[in-house]
Here is the input.
Amino acid sequence: MSDFTFNGISASSMGLNIERRPRQYVPRKRLTTHQIPGRSGDLHEWDGSWENFAMLYECWFKSDPVAAQAHKIKTWLSTAPVGARLEDTYDEEIYYRATYIGGANIENIHDRYGRFTVSFDCAPQACLKSGDSALTFESTGYIQNPTDFPAYPLIEFTGSVSGSIQIGSVHMQILFPDEFTEHTIRLDCALREAWELADGQEIPTNTAVVSREFPVLMPGQNSVKITGGIDTVRVYPRWWQL
Here is the structure.
């Protein structure tokens, strides 16, 4: 049975049936267009990024009355946070970060069937589920990026004695707060922010990571070298494709 899951809740659990599978979308390049006087045609400048796109699901459900189930569906979609996880059975290896903006009109058919098209505003990256699994290192190793796109990982450093790590061409020094207690520092290479969890709270620790650059996992093989007192490094690569 065809299905999609948004913010951890499946469409089928809400009584929805997918009438038509979504199209395979190709994100548009984000371009700046310049028109030069005296020169025919346009000059396009691309910064390497892509635009969001709309993912559409044509759905129907059976309910007597329709209004009762329609309210549940609207609540599910409208209360989800921005950038919630969207996955479906058409490609079970990936998911998107999606936002339901609203505006879907539910057609009431004889007060027994409801029909509507739900539209999600999706980030252009198709995130590979395999990229959510941690790669663990205690010494030298390498990371193989299976995609054609650079990935910005989430990295966890565990230890008590400060040390250094090299991922690809990027060198970083990790400074743990003290040498008597084990700490886990997390670094988001996309946001360029570091933090540590303490009593369920995220404590900013940007000063614990000394580096001029942040690691990027380029397509192909990326070396990993650990020195000093770092006990364990866990890399969540966050692979993606279009």
In short: The radius of gyration is 23 Å. The mean pLDDT is 89.
